[in-house]
Amino acid sequence: MPSLSPAVAELRRAVRSVVADLAERRMVVALSGGADSLALTAAVVFEAQKADATVVAVVVDHGLQEGSDAVAARAADAARALGADARVVRVDVDLAHPDGPEAAAREARYAALRTVARQEGAAAVLLGHTLDDQAETVLLGLARGSGAASLQGMAPERVDDEGLRWVRPLLSVRRETTRAACAASALEFWDDPHNFDPRYARVRVRESVLPVLEAELGPGIAEALARTAEQLREDADAFDEMIHETIEDIVEHAEAGISVSVAALAANPAALRNRIIRLVVDAEFGASLSRIQTLEVARLATDWSGQGPIDLPGCSAQRVGGQIVFTARG
């Protein structure tokens, strides 16, 4: 009997605990047809058989490339051959999206996955992001100066407002391992041409920046970036718990909005104060503040000289007596 490929074994170990936790339930696997998602599907199906769980592979056809329907159909056929149920979902991508076609495609894809998961009664959606994807995400966040939140990279798991789990079990697995697992299992995967198009920043990081860092600083850069993301997430989780405890004491509901105690904001360290401001605006108005906007709001508490209301995304902030009042914009 042939020995098990080390790459296949690593993939199965990576998904085992997640699948076991979903025993006797349905789960969705996001399948593009690429090596990462195909290797993930194969590993999940194998482990699901032991856990009496059902796997539904969902292939989202964005319709952005000629022949994308054929690629989607082949991916679905590969999933069925592995033993999964499979569905192809065609989506419309808003090419005029303010954040560009990548963001538009991502939004459409996640919406489609959420819809299918709801229809199937699935408890979780499994995504095929690898350690390499995590490293690229951290580098992009660093280059954009997006702060500690972006340097945390992608979370291994999150639960959305509907209670659906979004799980990335391969964040400790290298991309080369998924390709080796496919080769060992005779799984024919698809290489998306967009993954080699230098017009995309992520491709430039993958093909140019990371190799240079590896050559100049030594091997292990991707692993180091992934470890950094993990450590920052641990710090952020602890910090978020502190923030929520603080918010309960200093935030009050106001007419058409919400208010925060000036004295309490001013008494907190800058890092905590700024996070409170961002969290309040995000939670109440669903808007994200830039660092400049956050600091301008903070000045209402720390550097008050009579300045008037500050216009923010979705709301305005104004100092009224001992409160900073955030009010929805009409």
UniProtKB/TrEMBL annotation:
Record-level GO cellular component terms: cytoplasm
Sorted UniProt keywords: ATP-binding, Cytoplasm, Ligase, Nucleotide-binding, tRNA processing
tRNA(Ile)-lysidine/2-thiocytidine synthase N-terminal domain segment(s): 27-207
Pfam families: ATP_bind_3, TilS
Cellular localisation: Cytoplasm
Sample GO molecular function, one term: tRNA(Ile)-lysidine synthase activity
The family this protein is said to belong to: Belongs to the tRNA(Ile)-lysidine synthase family.
Name of the protein in its database record: tRNA(Ile)-lysidine synthase
Species, as recorded: Microbacterium keratanolyticum
Protein encoded by which gene: tilS
